Amino acid sequence: TKDPDEIVETLIRLRPSFGAVNLEDISAPRCFEIEKRVIEALDCPVMHDDQHGTAIVVLAALKGAVTVQDRDLHQLRVVISGAGAAGVACANILLAAGIADVTVLDSKGIVSADRKDLNEVKVDLAARTNPAGRRGGTAEALNGADVFLGVSAGTVPEELIATMAKDSIVFALSNPDPEIHPDIARKHAAIVATGRSDFPNQINNVLAFPGVFRGALDAGA
Asked: Which of 18, 110, 133, 142 lies at a C-alpha separation of 20 to 30 Å from 124?
């Protein structure tokens, strides 16, 4: 079923037989409603892997990258391509980690407060991101940026990666096709990662959620 009511009702009925819920591959904005309702209905840990799993590994990888580069995480200017479940969650965790300059792109360009075509989730996101008030698309967002985070099904041209700041970081996490091939990104970026296990520097939510759940179950969360 794709019906939120049926998904929630099914989980309530199954609750006596499991210890936690991992929601997987539910698209935005429906995933936010389902997650909220399941959390309210159940007395056990609930995680949406595409949101929280992705956000956890992205923050961990970014902390690793700035450690290698001896940079201050809080001074980074981050561009996130994708305003779905993963993009919103990544923006939230990066903001919570103290990165002030986060710009999010959807299929129509920079998510900004002046746009009239935003859903409720993106309206909230627009109010908390893009502090410089940038307008336009990928080209305007990436010019001078320190970090590109791709969590969309789109592509980013090499010439735009070339406009990023010195020692830039590129996390092209779309699967199976990264937003830009890592060999091409490496011509311009100091650190490059993808979501694939057959490329170096894999960043994938599979690296996080088994440990998150084990910890939650051990703690009786």
From this structure: 142
Residue at token pair 């929601």: 23
**Sequence-ordered list of residues with C-beta below 8 angstroms from that of 78, at least 6 positions apart, any chain:** 94, 99, 101, 102, 103, 145, 146, 147, 149
Taking alpha carbons only, the member of 186, 140, 182 closest to residue 163 is 140
Q: Count Cα neighbours of 20 within 13 Å in the Cβ-side half-sphere.
A: 19
- Max distance between CA atoms of the chain, in angstroms, equals 54
Nearest C-alpha neighbor of 65 from the set 130, 138, 149, 139: 149
**Structure token digits, residue 151:** 């969590």
DSSP tag of 139: H
Residue 43 and residue 7: Cα distance in Å, rounded? 16
Give the number of other CB atoms < 10 A from CB of residue 37: 18
Of 167, 134, 169, the C-alpha closest to 148 is 169
Instruction: Evaluate whether 157 touches 139 at the Cβ level (below 8 Å).
Output: no
pTM of this prediction?
0.90
Closest CA to 205 of 60, 31, 30: 60
Copy the structure tokens of residue 45.
């840990």
* Cα separation, 46 vs 169, whole angstroms: 31
pLDDT bin (cut points 50, 70, 90) of residue 31 is: confident
- Determine the Cα–Cα distance for residues 144 and 139; give it in Å rounded to an integer: 10
